[in-house]
Write a structure and sequence with these properties.
Layout: H1 3-29, H2 35-55, H3 69-84, H4 90-113, H5 118-135, H6 144-163, H7 170-192, H8 200-224, H9 230-236, H10 239-251, H11 258-277, E1 289-290, E2 293-294
Antiparallel strand pairs: 1-2
Length: about 300
C-alpha cells in the first residue's frame, strides 16, 4: 500500500479509537448508562451500521471468513474495557490497556517478523516514556479486579488487530465480526438491564461509539493494517491517549499544559523514530531482524 495512504488511514483510525475512549468515559462518568448496556448497544449499533454499508455495495461479498475467533476477541475487548473503567482512573486505564496491547502485539509479532531493530526499540521506549509522563499524575493504585479486566481487554485487542492484517475485504470482515457479536450482546443486555428506562444521552453515546468510533473506525484500522507490520501497528497506538487529550482540549476547553506539550512531542517523536527504523530506503515498512536477515514481506 502507498505509505501516504497508510499514514492517512492510520491517523483516522487512531482518532476514532481516541473518540471511542472519550465517549465511553463520558457515558460511564456521568452514570447515564451502565457498562453492560453501553457495550451491548455499542456492538449492535456497529453491526447495524456495517451491515448496511455492506448491503449498499453493488457487488461484494456480504460475509467474510468462517472463523468466529475475531468476533470473540472483539467481544472480549469491548466488555472488559467498559467494566474496567468503572473502577479505574483515565490515566491508570490507559497505561494498563496500551501497555498490554504493546506487549501482546510485539510478542506475537516476534515469531513472524523477527526481532525489532534497535531503532524500533528506542522509539518504543521514548514513546511509552512520553505516555507515562503524560498520565503519571492521574495514575493511582488500581483495584485488582478492574486492572485484570483492562489487561484482558488489552490482550484481546492486540490479537484482534493482528487477526485483521492482510484481509482482502476489511469492511465485509468487520461487519461479519460485529454481526457475530450480536447474540453475545443480547445476552449481555439481558444480564445488565435493570428494567428501568434508558437515558437518551447514554443511548446516543453508545450508538455513536458503536456506529462511528468502533464500526467505521475498525474498518479503517483493518485497511491501515495492510501497510503496517505488527510491531509498527503496536507502536502507533501509543498516540491514542495523546489524541484523546488533544480532543479534550478542543472539545472540553481543557487547558494546554506544558506536560501535555512535552509528552505529545515525546510520544509522536518516539513513534516517528520507531517507524523510520523499520522503513527501507524505498519507503516500505519491513519486519525486524532474525538471525541477522530480514524476513520476506
Amino acid at each position: 500500500m502507498n505509505p501516504a495512504r497508510t499514514a492517512g488511514l492510520t491517523a483516522l483510525a487512531l482518532t476514532a479509537f481516541a473518540a471511542n475512549s472519550v465517549l465511553c468515559r463520558l457515558a460511564l462518568a456521568e452514570a447515564v448508562i451502565d457498562p453492560g448496556t453501553f457495550t451491548a448497544l455499542r456492538l449492535v449499533a456497529g453491526a447495524v451500521t456495517l451491515g448496511a454499508l455492506v448491503r449498499s455495495r453493488p457487488s461484494a461479498s456480504r460475509s467474510s471468513g468462517r472463523s468466529w475467533w475475531p468476533a470473540v476477541l472483539l467481544f472480549l475487548y469491548a466488555v472488559p474495557f467498559a467494566f474496567a473503567y468503572v473502577g479505574l482512573s483515565t490515566g491508570t486505564g490507559a497505561l494498563l490497556l496500551f501497555g498490554t496491547v504493546q506487549v501482546t502485539m510485539i510478542l506475537a509479532s516476534l515469531r513472524r517478523e523477527g526481532r525489532p531493530r534497535p531503532g524500533q526499540w528506542a522509539g518504543l521506549a521514548v514513546a511509552f516514556g512520553g505516555l507515562v509522563y503524560l498520565l503519571l499524575p492521574s495514575v493511582t493504585a488500581p483495584p485488582v479486579a478492574s486492572a485484570a479486566l483492562m489487561v484482558v481487554a488489552g490482550v484481546a485487542w492486540g490479537f484482534y488487530s493482528l487477526a485483521g492484517r492482510g484481509l482482502p475485504d476489511p469492511l465485509a470482515q468487520t461487519a461479519t465480526n460485529f454481526g457475530r457479536t450480536v447474540p453475545m450482546a443480547a445476552i449481555l443486555l439481558l444480564m445488565s438491564w435493570s428494567g428501568g428506562e434508558l437515558e437518551l444521552r447514554g443511548v446516543v453515546l453508545a450508538v455513536i461509539s458503536g456506529a462511528l468510533a468502533s464500526g467505521v473506525g475498525y474498518v479503517i484500522w483493518y485497511q491501515a493494517l495492510r501497510g503496517l507490520t505488527g510491531i509498527a501497528a503496536a507502536v502507533v497506538q501509543l498516540a491514542v491517549p495523546v489524541i484523546a487529550a488533544a480532543g479534550g482540549t478542543v472539545l472540553l476547553a481543557e487547558p494546554v499544559t506544558i506536560r501535555l506539550a512535552v509528552a505529545s512531542a515525546l510520544v509522536l517523536g518516539g513513534i516517528g523514530l520507531a517507524l523510520k527504523a523499520g522503513i527501507t530506503p524505498s519507503g516500505v515498512l519491513v519486519p525486524g531482524r532474525r538471525s541477522g536477515r530480514h524476513r520476506p514481506l
